Amino acid sequence: MNKLIIDTSDNKLVTVGLKIGEKEFTLSKKVTFNGVQFALPMIDSLLNKYSISVKEIDLIDINVGPGSLTGIKVGMAIANALSYCLKIPINYNK
After folding, report:
1. Burial grade of 55 (CB within 10 A; 0-12, 13-18, 19 or more)
2. What is the CATH number of the domain that holds 23?
């Protein structure tokens, strides 16, 4: 099972991860104003680095707070769009 992990709840740090089987890989970036705009390029970079197609993702984990409301909304929008397009479930984590 391949799982995408998204955490945009911190307004100073964006973290995305990829769990392939039992191995987990993460990518974090310290950000300033409007930092969540880096989430999608970070996801793309992580998928490319480990040669995983977005179609191979089976599940999405998203951190829904507490944290930055705008960051959480952006992370949720990314997760919901991918979930809808790929027809895969989302785990909402606190």
Report:
1. exposed
2. 3.30.420.40
